[in-house]
Amino acid sequence: MYDFQYHKPASVADAVKLLADPDAKAISGGQTLIPALKHRLNRPTAVVDLSGIAEMKGIRREGNAIVIGALSRHDDVAGSAEVKAAIPALADMAAHIGDTQVRNRGTMGGSISNNDPAADYPAAVVALNATVITSKRRITADEFFQGMFTTALEPDELVIAISFPVPEKAGYAKMRNPASRYVMAGVFVAKTGGEVRVAVNGAAPCVFRQGEMEAALGANWSAEAVGGIKQDATDLNGDIHGSAEYRAHLVTVMAKRAVAAAG
Amino acid sequence: MNDVVPFEGIGASVRRKEDFRFLRGRGAYTADFNRQGQLHAWILRSPHAHARIRSVDVAATTGMPGVVTVFTGADMAKDNLGGLPCGWQIHNKDGSPMAEPPHAVIAHDKVRHVGDPVAVAIAATRDQARDAAEAIVVDYDVLPAAATLEAALKPGAPEVHGGVAGNLCYDWHIGDKTVLDAAFAKAHKIVSLDLVNNRLIPNAMEPRAALGEYDPTTGDYTLHTTSQNPHVIRLLMGANVLHIPESKLRVVAPDVGGGFGSKIYHYAEEAIVTWSAGKLGRPVKWTADRTESFMSDAHGRDHVSKADLALDANGTILGLKVHTYANMGAYLSTFAPCVPTYLYATLLAGTYITPVIYAEVKAVFTNTVPVDAYRGAGRPEATFLLERLMDVAALESGIDRVELRRRNFIQPDQFPYQTPVALQYDSGNYQATLDQALAAADWAGFESRRAEAAKRGKLRGIGCSTYLEACGIAPSAVVGSLGARAGLYEVGTIRVHPTGSVTVLTGAHSHGQGHETTFAQLVADKLGVPVAQVDIVHGDTAKVPFGMGTYGSRSLAVGGSAMMKAMDKVIAKGKRIAAHLMEASVDDIEFERGTFRVAGTDKTKALVDISVAAYVPHNYPIDEIEPGLEETAFYDPKNFTYPGGCHIAEVEIDPETGKVSMVNFTAVDDVGRVINPMIVEGQVQGGIAQGIGQALLETCVYDADGQLLSGSMMDYTMPRADDLAPVSVATHTTLCTHNPLGVKGCGEVGAIGSPPAVINAVVDALRDFKVRTLDMPATPAKIWGIINGGRAMAAE
To answer: Which parts of the sequence belong to the Aldehyde oxidase/xanthine dehydrogenase a/b hammerhead domain (chain B) (predicted)?
Structure first.
């Protein structure tokens, strides 16, 4: 990697000041940034280590929502009694991200800020209609994810926490890429306050909502209701591991399995 | 003492001595060696598959922090160095030699694959060297690439090497085509099959590394390198590339973290650091990162074949015809030409009586990384072709696939068995390994398991492979007549120390095989010395007299046999000393496991009595026998060894996703006499893991421009533990008849026997979809495509 300045601020305010430098990079769990640095694909002037910021940590229940601090590691989410009790599908998703090493380093804030198309969490955030709480404002899930590796975050804006309304039902299923084990196609289904949301990750450049499936599940919450719905392959990803058509097919299969998992 | 030491000889599962350091992170690998004043090299590699180098401008590196120098291909060319040599020459059908274009250590006219070295930057730290490499400006004239076999064979394809027409390295054949045509004319049925043997990237756990040193006061060079055969590297690099005599060049291959063939070859980086150390008078070290491993380690396999099998009405094989295109990559790696010829086409009889075989092999240059031997080397390709063909033949002739194999097996009383493609098998019992495997896998009970799986919505399949391979490479005269430019004997020295402990020097090299244990067991068994008192020394040309190294499952069959011969010499000398000490005739001295006895008496001497006398020769027949107790033997094998057996795979397919899951794997292998059953089991399991990897997961993909799409672990699917199945490994032994141990070799059987068993199981699982051709790897997307296509057809 190239040389860079290293900072470890103790507060969000200090971190944001350091990030006023457009070539500085925030680091949370480092599961994306560190490999990029090692491959010299990124040359930041400074790396701002967020791990010392207490206000970005912790998982708590606030009324009818679970609020997860941005620095919560996947393993924290997977093992949280609050998450397991209120949104078991989210805990289960966290328990199956990457491998043990990734789950002990990677964080929810880092994952959603990076918005890798093959990441897990964006599907949960969208399907559960979570609110992203940043250093500046509150952003709805639908507004937050804007495109491949692109979010509504401004350069000096940090995710502080994510607030998930507790759903009546939620389930997630994914097909892993055989090589990377990232998501090749995943579907998160949730019913919250009577509203059904279906979010698809891995299959396209950015997480998206599957409106036809939402309508079908709204009318009839069952695996059969989505089993006949074909995902349009236009604009889906295709690569050496699977064509867009294969991914489109997987969306239907994973939707059925997500509904079955949700019960 | 002896009565509390458990048996450690041949047949005991002695725990691996080397694991004492490996499991505690105390191994000493090439990258662990650091020297005073050491510099670091970073290789600038071509980003293009095919380009003319117009210029290499290094001006910007001058004065960069820590940077000592940059060497280009032109700098190396000025020193009149040789190119990287090829160790095997194949002749064309017409008797002319293969095309053997030069392979510059650092490219200076053209680059021919992504990763081809263009310059080396040398600096105080690795990062500084990399900074300098990034500052080098290379002006490339990018040319169209011949990135795949298909592209390289097209009329008008780009020429990888000027003057090599049609990119054809050689056009070789074996067998009698006239006899074959006659056999085919009488055939009741001819079964044809097109096959692709997928290209693999070896991915040893330890990336390659090299550390060159030069001592200007003596003129001695030392190279530490990640090699399976340090003496071969000394010979190739010293004689062919750098022109350094053996006496001035020491090559050390210390602990090495896996090779699988990829560390046999002499690589450019070894010559670069050794030559640079001489130029600069300072040690120079290079360590690959994983990305470099993907684009510079020799790849494996990559065949496209067409096979035709002629059968009579009873399913008896009348003849086999094979046509194969083999990808050589951009340059000829050290042993590349022999892999698709003498390690492949000679294996096409497999375990079956095949009266006539005719095989043609065309080797082709492409703008890709060189391809050479990878675990199994040629034999997995032959086995996959033959064992897939047998399943298709069974299906199309309506004969049960196990029965078809039985009908054609070479019978136990037919050994030695001469095949029509040069090899003479010495021993085997293919019925026995098949029967044992069928029972262990409960083949008979499969249909009920398939029915149960169907209730769960899964497609279950079972498949077998009754394979054979040739290893213990190899008789020198034979390989010499076939084009090898080296002998393939092995060397062993047995040094009995004065107090009776033993040091063994071997030319074999251990990079995961457990030699330090298995070889010590040979000494324990024969000389009666406890394993703890036997040290195995390997991997250092300054310590070991000579050696050809480890590949082709040869270490025990050839290297172990050399040790046995050296121990025979030790015992013969010991008998003469014992005869003197016990005042008996040499002819009356018997030896068994450490004890010399006067036959028919209770007069004995222990080995230690003899060794003390040999090194402290006070009462000693000094006029007749030299002091000391150390013997060296060179062993040149009389034949290859022929392990074989039966592998059975059982799989389940999720028809919704196409994902194939291994549910069971049974191997019954005949590897000859087993020295350490635990180590054999581990070797076979590891080979099967790689075989399952080839069958279901791994494939190297280049795009049309020659860019490596599967260039990292993100896209190249290495097998993980949860991709594998419970693997049951058993052995059924017939002894090798021509080496003193009766051993055959176990290093490659797993990777050779397993891929067709897995694919046959997948095809069986898909039996309702009438699959005929299924190229590896059977990825979820590929299987889904078959299932989806099948459904579409069914709906029409």
So the answer is: 24-144
- Among B411, B444, B463, give the residue marking a domain's end: B411
B625 shares its domain with B647: no
Q: Which of B717, B776, B783 is the best residue to mutate to test the A interface, defined by the most A CB atoms within 10 Å of its own CB?
A: B717
Do B127 and B103 share a structural domain? yes
Whether B3 shows a pLDDT value over 60: the answer reads no
Is residue B462, in this structure, part of any structural domain at all? yes
Question: How close B649 gets to chain A, by Cα (Å)?
Answer: 20
Same domain, B669 and B605: no
A1 touches B: beta carbon within 8 Å: yes
The residues, any chain, with a CB within 8 Å of residue A168's CB and separated by 6 or more, are A191, A192, A193, A194
B159 domain-assigned: no
pLDDT in tens, B219-278: 999 999 999 999 999 999 999 999 999 999 999 999 999 999 999 999 999 999 999 999
User: B55 pairs with which residues across the strands?
Assistant: B139
List, for residues B9-27, the tens digit of each pLDDT value.
Answer: 999 999 999 999 999 999 9
Cβ of A246 under 8 Å from any chain B Cβ? Answer: yes
Residue burial B275-305, b: 16+ Cβ < 10 Å; e: rest: bbbbbbebbbbbbbeebbbbbbbbbbbbbbb
B95 within a domain of the structure (yes/no): yes
> Chain A interface, mutation test: which of B784, B787, B791, most A Cβ atoms within 10 Å?
B784
Average pLDDT score over residue span B170-198: 97
Average pLDDT over residues B724-728: 92
Same domain as B688, residue B589: no
d(CA B640, CA B745): 10
Which ipTM score applies to this complex? Answer: 0.96
In chain A the domains, ranked by start, together with CATH numbers, are 1-48 (3.30.43.10), 169-262 (3.30.390.50)
- A-B CB pairs within 8 A amount to 45
pLDDT digits (tens, 9 = 90+) for A104-156: 999 999 999 999 999 999 999 999 999 999 999 999 999 999 999 999 999 99
How far is CA B616 from each of CA B494, B499, B603, B613, B619, rounded to the nearest angstrom?
19, 11, 21, 5, 8
Pick from A142, A133, A147, A136: nearest CA to A209: A142
* B348 and B374 belong to one structural domain: yes
- Chain A residues lying within 8 Å of B717, measured CB to CB: 178-179
Kindly state the tokens that stand for A21.
């430098």
Whether the CB of A20 is below 8 Å from some CB of chain B: the reply is no
Out of B635, B658, B679, pick the residue that ends a domain: B635
- Is residue B417 situated within a structural domain? no
Flag whether pLDDT at B790 surpasses 80: no
| B290 min Cα distance to partner chain A (Å) | 10
The answer to whether B381 and B341 have CB atoms below 8 angstroms apart is no
pLDDT single digits (tens) B444-473: 999 999 999 999 999 999 999 999 999 999
Assign residue B265 a region (left: φ > 0; alpha: ψ between -120 and 50; beta: otherwise). Answer: beta
Range of the domain at B136: 41-144
For chain B, the domain total comes to 5
Least CB–CB distance from A249: residue in B697, B713, B784: B784
